């Protein structure tokens, strides 16, 4: 579903005299349908940078990223804005670590929005949003409120509900259980497994070893010191 070739990222800090900050160099990486790929590595190794590059939030310095979109491998690097919007609406879902929402929009609408953008009617989108919010233990009294003042864990669960409301062929998850208790982390593990069983290619960062072991089909080591030929390991992690 995703093919990454020779991906290199160097940040240039223009407000710091143009200092160059190399993050990773020459990454080759494949994410397959129905598999969960875990990005693994030390803090600062570039996991989030890689995930953001897959969503085209960051522009790579060199290399290419392609995603299977409408049945064809489509370049993300260098894609026109219109193509990127289409890819994000139909093919790639992204659950960032923190919820970013428009003020004064009710939680139920925040969660339902990705379905509404795909033309699903309000009633159906709200029903699906309510199911997910219930599953993730967000009390019903909060559904009509904007999530801006919710606790960190509540906001993260709203973000997860929003990410899982569409059956995206590719789902990118940036530490989706970081602020969650065990009960809610277990719900997220279930949601990931269900998505994977439907054929979604999941790519995620999970700091919690228990969660990681519960969902990983393969682990991709992101390591800024690595040699080019040891970039990819296809370690099967026991369920
Ligand atoms: N927008 C940016 N501008 C400049 N440097 C950045 C930017 N984003 C990330 N970096 C740098 O890139 C490096 C990798 O950061 P990244 O967040 O990808 O690491 P990570 O592996 O996800 O770390 P962690 O596990 O701590 O979240 C860091 O040194 C960071 O300072």
TrEMBL record:
Q: Which residues form the ABC transporter domain?
A: 2-239
PROSITE patterns associated with the record? ABC_TRANSPORTER_1, ABC_TRANSPORTER_2
GO molecular function annotations of the record: lyase activity
SMART domains, alphabetically?
AAA
Q: Which UniProt keywords are listed?
A: ATP-binding, Lyase, Nucleotide-binding
**Cited InterPro entries:** AAA+_ATPase, ABC_transporter-like_ATP-bd, ABC_transporter-like_CS, CP_lyase_PhnL, P-loop_NTPase
Pfam families registered for this protein in UniProt: ABC_tran (PF00005)
Q: Cross-referenced NCBIfam families, in alphabetical order?
A: CP_lyasePhnL
Family, per the entry? Answer: Belongs to the ABC transporter superfamily.
Q: What is this protein called?
A: Phosphonate C-P lyase system protein PhnL
Gene source species = Amphritea pacifica
| Gene that this polypeptide is encoded by | phnL
């Amino acid at each position: 579903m995703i093919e990454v070739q020779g991906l290199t990222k160097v940040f240039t800090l223009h407000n710091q005299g143009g200092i160059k900050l190399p993050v990773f160099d020459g990454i080759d990486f494949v994410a397959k349908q129905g598999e969960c790929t875990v990005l693994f590595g030390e803090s600062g190794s570039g996991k989030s940078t890689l995930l953001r590059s897959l969503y085209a939030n960051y522009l790579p310095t060199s290399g290419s990223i392609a995603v299977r979109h409408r049945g064809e491998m489509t370049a993300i690097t260098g894609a026109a804005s219109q193509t990127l919007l289409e890819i994000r609406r139909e093919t790639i879902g992204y659950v960032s670590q923190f919820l970013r929402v428009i003020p004064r929009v009710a939680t139920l609408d925040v969660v339902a929005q990705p379905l509404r953008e795909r033309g699903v009617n309000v009633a159906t989108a709200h029903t699906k949003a309510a199911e997910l919010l219930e599953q993730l233990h967000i009390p019903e009294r909060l559904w009509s409120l904007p999530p801006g003042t919710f606790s960190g864990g509540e906001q993260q669960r709203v973000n997860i509900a929003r990410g899982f409301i569409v059956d995206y062929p590719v789902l990118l998850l940036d530490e989706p259980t970081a602020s969650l208790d065990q009960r809610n982390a277990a719900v997220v593990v279930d949601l990931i497994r269900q998505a994977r069983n439907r054929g979604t290619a999941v790519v995620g960062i999970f700091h919690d070893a228990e969660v990681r072991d519960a969902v990983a089909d393969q682990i991709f080591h992101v390591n800024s010191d690595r040699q080019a030929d040891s970039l990819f390991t296809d370690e099967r992690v026991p369920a």
